[in-house]
């Protein structure tokens, strides 16, 4: 999976640099990162709590017209849910929580429409590759990890969001991702549960 992430990241960066050599005003590449609030949704999911994690990765913007661009990205995205929340005073200090961790390399390809100035809306398909799946009763420590093999390796989803991009290249954004793929594999024990990923993201980034 590390090779997959490196290959995808180089592809995004290579696409940007190849076009930038011809016309630096056409294509931009950058980095981004932010916070995830992830959970599961569907007819067969019980009362789970949102897991707080992060996302980080690479982004490129390929303008088609003055107000329309295509934006591919390669991101690490920490997802899943909290099985039990035992510390409510500080959501970042969650070492007493029990987390179900489903971590992905996500590759969205978004249509990006500028409505005015730097404000834009985004939407498009996203494919996720599962790279980590475990139950963790000590999320801020290396101990307490129990590997599981219940989730599907690939997750198809829809990403939608809004963004404001400043003239100096910095941008801020908010996004929601809904998974179309059922998260868990069909089994004799659990059947074929109707459970999907649901992730809210907020973050910042910079285009070079």
TrEMBL record:
Signal peptide boundaries: 1-22
Tagged with keyword Cell cycle: no
Ranges of residues in domain Outer membrane protein beta-barrel: 20-184
UniProt xrefs under InterPro entries: Beta-barrel_OMP_2, OMP/PagP_B-barrel
Metal-binding found in the keyword field: no
Keywords: Signal
Name of the molecule in the record: Opacity protein-like surface antigen
């Amino acid at each position: 999976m590390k090779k997959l992430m490196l290959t995808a990241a180089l592809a995004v960066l290579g696409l940007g640099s190849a076009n930038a050599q011809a016309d630096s005003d056409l294509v931009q590449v950058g980095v981004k990162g932010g916070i995830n609030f992830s959970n599961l949704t569907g007819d067969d999911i019980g009362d789970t709590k949102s897991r707080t994690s992060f996302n980080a990765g690479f982004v490129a913007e390929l303008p088609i017209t003055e107000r329309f661009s295509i934006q591919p990205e390669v991101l690490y995205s920490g997802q899943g849910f909290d099985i039990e929340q035992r510390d409510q005073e500080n959501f970042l200090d969650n070492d007493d929580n029990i987390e179900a961790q489903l971590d992905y390399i996500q590759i969205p390809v978004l249509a990006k429409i500028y409505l005015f100035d730097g404000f834009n809306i985004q939407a498009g398909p996203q494919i996720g590759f599962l790279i980590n799946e475990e139950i963790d009763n000590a999320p801020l420590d290396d101990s307490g990890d129990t590997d599981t093999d219940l989730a599907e390796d690939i997750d198809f989803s829809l990403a939608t969001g809004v963004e404001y991009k400043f003239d100096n290249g910095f941008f801020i954004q908010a996004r929601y991702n809904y998974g179309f793929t059922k998260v868990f594999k069909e089994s004799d024990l659990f059947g074929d549960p109707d459970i999907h990923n649901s992730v809210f993201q907020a973050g910042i980034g910079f285009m070079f």
